[in-house]
Amino acid sequence: MAELKEYIVLLAFLSLFHIVGGLVFGTTLRGLGRRITGRSIFLLVWSLFFGGVPLLMFLQSDWPWWVHATRALVLFGSAVLGFILKDSLQGLLQQGHMVTMILGGVFMTAGAGLVASRIVAEEFPLGLLMGTIFFLVGLGIFVLGFRGWKKEKTQADDAWRFRDDSAEG
């Protein structure tokens, strides 16, 4: 039973990378129909590494077949969803601060998952250190995105307030 818990925790942790990589791959692939740019090539290569390398690294492990199949399905399904929902995701992707906060959240979740998996496996020192580093990096990224979003929102509110004041005078 402890082995099953470890598989599920590691599956959840690695699926974060598959989801992000798959979504970026799918949305970028759909955008290639219009034009090919250096940015689109970079995003395709980056997403393949970010989502695909964790899958390939652990294919040589002795995990059960269903773990590998689930991970491959998550990666492929995310790519298909990214391809289909590109237009819906476009507004979110254009808001840089929101994407930064989401990326920070992914890193924080990955760090928390790593800590949890190491606690379940009772391998405290290295797992806690790596999980804490992941979590803190994610927290830093999230805070940077939040501060940028808050600053942008404050500037937009000030602009509207200035318009209202000048309309009255």
Strand content: under 5%
Mean pLDDT: 78
Our count of domains comes out at 2
Instruction: Give helix % range.
Output: over 70%
The tally of strands reads 0
SSE order: HHHHHH
Structural class: mainly alpha
- Low-pLDDT stretches: none
**Helical stretch tally:** 6
- Distance linking N and C termini: 72 Å
Radius of gyration: 20 Å
**Largest sheet, strands/sense/barrel:** none
Taken from the alpha-carbon principal axes, the silhouette is flat
Q: What does it look like?
A:
The chain has helices spanning 2-31, 38-58, 65-84, 86-94, 96-121, 124-168. It has two domains: 1-90; 95-169. The N and C termini lie far apart (72 Å). By secondary structure, the chain is an all-alpha fold. The mean pLDDT is 78. Helix 1 packs antiparallel against helix 2 (38-58) and helix 5 (96-121) runs antiparallel to helix 6. The radius of gyration is 20 Å and the shape is flat.
In short:
The chain is mainly alpha-helical and 169 residues long. The protein has six helices and no strands.
